[in-house]
Structure formats: structure tokens, C-alpha cells
Known about the structure:
- The protein is an alpha+beta fold.
- The protein is about 30% helix and about 25% strand.
- The protein has three helices and seven strands, in the order αβββαββββα.
- Strands 1, 2, 3, 4, 5, 6 and 7 form a seven-stranded mixed β-sheet that branches.
- Strand 5 (about 95-105) and strand 6 form a beta hairpin.
- Helix 2 (about 70-80) crosses helix 3.
- The chain is globular.
- It starts with 9 loop residues before the first helix and ends with a helix.
- The relative contact order is 0.19.
- Mean pLDDT is about 80; it is low at about 15-30.
Amino acid sequence: xxxxxxxxxxxxxxxxxxxxxLCGCAAQEVGAEIKLASGSHPTDLTCPRTSNCVxxxxxxxxAALRHTGDPVQGMTLLRATLASFPEANIVRSDPLWLExxxxxxxxxxxxxxxxxxxxxxxxxxxSKSLVxxxxxxxxxSRMSVFSERFAAQSKLxxxx
Length: 160
């Protein structure tokens, strides 16, 4: 009896998708944090005209993070909040800025830049996907949760 092999049209697409996920996950390794000299951080936190980026600049719907105390205390609070996100890796920093990569469970990477304003006690941020033009609202929802945790964490730290 002859066995005929029937190929499903879904198989090649599924294979490509699986390869994409595996390669994407393997390429997500983030190295140790790089410390930069003061003033070497980006100052432009605007978003491109795609739906995969959010920021805390006025008129964009998300508020800047607020802290009391000096910049060192603000950065301590920011790092303590980041520690509650296991998918977050700080990749570069200076005394007033952090670049963080969040890696989703599917292996997609989002870059978040935090810039601390020493005079106002605000920490502005931009969160953007590093791949594609749409993120299904992930950056906005993550930063909303981050803001809530930041506010809660600020109540836990000793008075500033």
C-alpha cells in the first residue's frame, strides 16, 4: 500500500512563525548595564507617528512620574520600581537617565528611556517597541502599571 504525503498549507507558515519566535527569543539577551558620563543621555522623548510608542510629555495622556527629594533618591526609587519587573533589564545609565529593555514573553523588545529632571522632581519617559508599528497597547498598559507601582514604592521608602 502506498502512503501519500499530504502537505498542509499551514505548515510552512507555522514553521516560519516558530523560527521567528525562537530566533527572536535567542536574540533578546541583554548584557550588563553600561554606565555613562553625566549629560550623555538623550533629551528627545518624542514618539514617531506610530501606535507602538507612548511618552509622558504634556498632551500625550500619560503623566510623568513624580518624586520628592534629590536626584539620587529619585533614581533609587526608579530602580526599586524596575526591580519589580523581572522582564526589565537596565542597559545604560547615567545619574539622571536610564535606558531599559523590557522583553515580552513572546520575545519582543520594548525600549524605555527615563529622564529625571533634578529641578522639578519629575521623571519623564518614552516607551517604544523596537520591532513593528503596532504593539496592541502593550507600552501604554505597561507604563500605566509602572506608574502605579512607582507611586506605591514611593510610599514604602523612608521619607525623602
